[in-house]
Design goal:
The complex is a heterotrimer of chains A (about 270), B (about 350) and C (about 270). Chain B is of the alpha+beta class and about 350 residues long. Chain B has eight helices and 20 strands. Chain B has two domains: about 230 residues, P-loop containing nucleotide triphosphate hydrolases (Rossmann fold, 3-Layer(aba) Sandwich), CATH 3.40.50.300; about 110 residues, OB fold (Dihydrolipoamide Acetyltransferase, E2P) (Beta Barrel). Chain C contains eleven helices and no strands. The chains are: A mainly alpha (about 270), B alpha+beta (about 350), C mainly alpha (about 270).
Chain lengths: ~270, ~350, ~270
């Protein structure tokens, strides 16, 4: 004899909003892939046959695949210092990472654009110190896109990595060194494996976020770096082609879900939630 | 005397596990009744059902003669003390204790008076303006006690209230709770897994095992006349000697053990020829000439007020004997002794 | 300290951290400085300082309207998201609700699903309902986007709090709503306020859904910025970007203060 908890009612407003203003619309959009302009799989055939779609999807994967390792490599020392530095230093570092984290993506992308312009700060700096004579093309190409993505995504790796590192007992490393391990071996065999949950979580977050990016490629990338979200926008706003937009959305969502499933399989979502 | 609380046929299951099974229990007005048992024996579940924090699957619970089946916890006339105090961390001690009075619409001035009185009773008259986190564990539990009885509920429920405290503090608070119980004449239903605590504080004890009550009675009854082998083993120290039943008559029986032929009180279910165990308390074992048991002392431990002897009987089983220290020594290590006891001091149980 | 062979790594780590710090903060610092420039193009360092771009901002109806729309949008959407999200988190953490984990995961979906998909989907279904170009349409979109953040924040605060406090209040005579109002709510209030701030800043910054759903008349700040960014950059954008950044900084500091307060209470 189990009675339904009366607190179930409290779930109603959020559940209803989510269903009506999110789940149903997204379901509707995805269903367009099979129903627009007429029922069938013609939209997926189109994705496969038109080189432009394949190229953009390939581009998107390729860009995510480059952004992820760069972000992880840059995040690692910051997380390490955060986890093992003095409490004072930790507070400063956390603040330093939180400030951009809370600032709008649009503002940060704009700020990056200012920095990277032809006559921007970075080029003036490079010329002044004699690294180059001519201003380098840093904007509206792969360099600009990567610079923008990595900057925005660093906190998504730093924080999970930090929380994994902060839980590592320094005694492990001391134990490893008393057992005869060199610092490098102790790091590779003891420390690095223990950071893997945070590292995998951060890397997955970066990868799936990059897959869906729209603002950064539109603002900092060039025509050759077009990504899948831009293509979806184009299909709807320019061509009104809901079928292809739905199919592209489905592909994007499937890739995101697959990566999350992979993360769940390797790390476990409970670990991530911690 | 009337019964404050009555449980009849109460049952609770969690999925396939029966937590409490066909439970009957009554608590007399002003009585201190303890539910004692190992963890998972159903004692806390029983308390939770009395509080209304869990619902029984079957059976009735009556409080002051009226069924509380449909009453939520906040409309039952009870007070409850939790193991981890459950003091509201954002309220001062005074506001914590005043909380139940406020819920009952007691006027401000009256509430203030009652709160001061309650804090006085638990020995914390000057701590009213502190926050719970500024108090020690023992002080927090005193505040929880004051909060649970300031409105004079018909029944006070205590769920392992001293479980989180160290031994010394626990013993001190046991006496204080006992004193508060006597001064206020309040009815208490107390849950613990600590048999010493139960013996110290209770008027009556109900021993729980696997969702059922094994025996209910005064501490003396449980200690001297355990009804089941579980009770004999769970309360106090006991020697168990196993053997075969030779004869049963008039509440007495005779058991043949490898160590010798023994006499004991009989309990239910003893059958001639079947195997049985005899339980006897270490302090009930006395030196006796021409007695049934012979053995060798293998260890002597001085405990201050008493001496503990470990005696290996001739069949190899060990028997612990406790004698007052001011009595003549039973013997040195290695010496042979003969032991016995009054038949009324030993109890025989059916095995299995 | 120096004999452990770790010194080279420590130096490298320090250098990389400084590099990342510069990388993260330099763009923002440059934008803030440029917003006070006296020059009429985005030059750094600026030839002189002035407030002319802020004056320009306040005297351009497109910008003042956008600010007004943003406020009209963030106030209802953050309040709605906080109320609904708090209620849902409470039900999911404290209630005995079958499938609570699955429901929780569903509520997190708006974070996981790429913004472009949500935006396109809302734009698509809004067409039939006449919600495109309306404040209502934007409010609904922003509410649903903020909801997961509120649920996650409040749920984690509720998990930290001892559920027995409510049971204790109940045995002491407090009906459920009173127990929630007097005991639970004061204890999770920092988390609730923190998620309100988060929802407000999320709404203020949100671009993609706004881009699809807004119109020339109902156009929040982010969309107005976007349309200017696609043309020529001028320091007015630096000024509005600085305003956005200042707002974010303010909210972050308020949030940190709330967290510090919560930490003190738990300690």
């Amino acid at each position: 004899m189990t009675t339904v908890d009366r607190r179930l009612w409290l779930l109603l407003p959020a559940g209803l909003t989510l269903t009506v203003a999110f789940l149903l619309p997204v379901g509707w959009l995805l269903s367009r892939a099979f129903t627009f302009p007429q029922p069938g799989f013609q939209n997926f055939v189109l994705l496969w046959e038109r080189p432009v779609y394949l190229r953009v999807m390939g581009n998107t994967l390729w860009i995510s695949a480059i952004v992820t390792p760069i972000t992880v490599l840059l995040a690692f020392p910051v997380a390490h210092l955060m986890a093992h530095g003095s409490p004072r230093l930790r507070r400063w570092l956390v603040f330093l990472v939180l400030v951009p984290f809370w600032t709008s993506l649009l503002v940060r992308s704009f700020a990056t654009a200012i920095l990277l312009q032809r006559h921007g700060v970075l080029n003036s700096f490079l010329i002044a110190f004699g690294f180059t004579e001519e201003p380098l093309p840093l904007l509206y190409n792969m360099a600009g896109l990567l610079a923008g993505c990595v900057q925005v995504l660093l906190p998504f790796v730093i924080f999970p990595l930090y929380s994994s590192m902060a839980r590592i007992d320094p005694a492990y490393m001391r134990a490893a060194s008393t057992l005869g391990a060199t610092p490098v071996r102790a790091f590779l065999r003891v420390y690095l494996p223990l950071t893997l949950p945070g590292l995998m979580t951060g890397a997955t977050l970066v990868f799936i976020s990059t897959l869906g990016y729209y603002i950064i490629p539109a603002l900092l990338g060039g025509a050759r770096q077009q990504m899948i979200a831009q293509l979806i926008q184009d299909q709807i706003a320019t061509f009104g082609n809901w079928g292809v937009a739905g199919a592209l959305s489905l592909v994007l969502l499937a890739a995101t879900a697959a990566l999350l499933a992979l993360l769940q399989f390797t790390v476990g979502l409970k670990e991530i939630a911690r | 005397m009337t019964n404050v609380l009555e449980l009849s046929g109460v049952q609770k299951r969690y999925d396939a596990v029966v937590a409490v099974d066909a439970l009957d229990l009554s608590l007399r007005s002003g009585e201190f009744l303890t539910l004692l048992g190992p963890s998972g024996s159903g004692k806390t579940t029983t308390l939770m059902m009395v509080a209304g924090l869990q619902q029984p699957d079957a059976g009735t619970i009556t409080l002051n003669g009226a069924s509380v089946a449909k009453l939520p916890p906040y409309r039952r006339d009870i007070g409850m003390v939790f193991q981890h105090y459950a003091l509201f961390p954002h309220m001062t001690v005074r506001r914590n204790v005043a909380f139940p009075l406020e819920m009952r619409g007691v006027s401000k001035t009256e509430a203030l008076r009652l709160v001061d009185e309650a804090l006085q009773l638990v020995g914390l008259p000057d701590h009213g303006d502190r926050l719970p986190k500024q108090l020690s564990g023992g002080q927090q539990q005193r505040v929880a006690l004051a909060r649970a009885m300031v409105y004079r509920p018909a029944l006070l429920l205590m769920d392992e209230p001293l479980g989180a405290l160290d031994r010394k503090l626990r013993e001190q608070l046991q006496l204080e709770i006992k004193r508060v119980h006597q001064e206020r004449g309040i009815s208490v239903l107390y849950v613990t897994h600590d048999q010493e605590e139960a013996l110290t504080m209770s008027d009556r004890i109900a021993v729980f095992n696997q969702g059922r009550i094994e025996q209910i009675g005064s501490p003396e009854e449980l200690y001297d006349r355990p009804a089941t082998r579980f009770v004999a083993g769970f309360i106090g120290d006991t020697n168990f000697l196993s053997g075969k039943v030779l004869a049963v008559s008039d509440g007495r029986c005779e058991i043949e053990t490898p160590a010798g032929r023994l006499q004991a009180r009989a309990t239910q279910g003893l059958l001639v020829g079947a195997s049985a165990s005899v339980a006897v308390r270490p302090e009930r074992v006395v030196p006796a000439a021409s007695a049934a048991l012979r053995g060798t002392i293998t260890d002597v431990i001085f405990l201050g007020t008493s001496r503990k002897y470990v005696v290996r009987l001739k069949d190899g089983t060990e028997c612990v004997v406790l004698r007052p220290a001011n009595e003549a020594a039973l013997g040195a290590r290695g010496s042979e002794v003969e032991l016995g006891w009054a038949p009324a001091h030993a109890t025989a149980f059916r095995d299995g | 300290m120096n004999a452990d062979g770790m010194t080279p790594w420590r130096l490298l780590r320090g250098a990389l951290c400084i590099l990342v710090a510069v990388y993260l903060l330099a763009p923002l610092v440059v934008v803030v400085i440029i917003s006070f420039s006296s020059a009429s193009f985005l030059q750094f360092p600026p030839p002189g300082l002035s407030l002319r771009w802020y004056a320009q901002l306040l005297s351009t109806p497109a910008w003042t309207n956008a600010l007004l729309v943003s406020v009209k949008l963030l106030v209802p959407s953050s309040i709605l998201a906080t109320l609904m999200g708090t209620a849902a988190a409470y039900a999911l953490v404290r209630g005995r609700i079958p499938g609570a984990t699955v429901i929780m995961a569903c509520l997190m979906l708006p974070i996981v699903v790429p913004g472009m998909i949500t935006a396109a989907a809302l734009f698509g279904v809004y067409r039939g309902m006449g919600l495109n170009g309306t404040l209502t349409g934007l409010v609904i979109g922003h509410t649903v986007l903020s909801l997961p953040y509120v649920v996650a924040t409040v749920a984690s605060a509720l998990r930290v709090q001892d559920a027995r406090l409510e049971q204790a209040a109940s045995t002491l005579g407090a009906p459920p709503w009173t127990a929630f109002r007097r005991i639970t709510l004061p204890l999770i209030l920092p988390a609730v306020l923190s998620s309100l701030l988060l929802a407000a800043i999320l709404s203020f910054d949100e671009l993609i859904v706004s881009l699809f759903v807004s119109s020339a008349r109902v156009r929040p700040v982010a969309v107005q910025m976007w349309s200017n960014l696609l043309g020529d950059f001028d320091p007015t954008i630096a000024a509005i970007a600085t305003v956005c950044f200042g707002f974010a900084l303010l909210v972050l500091i308020a949030d940190l203060a709330l967290r510090a307060g919560r930490g003190l209470r738990l300690a």
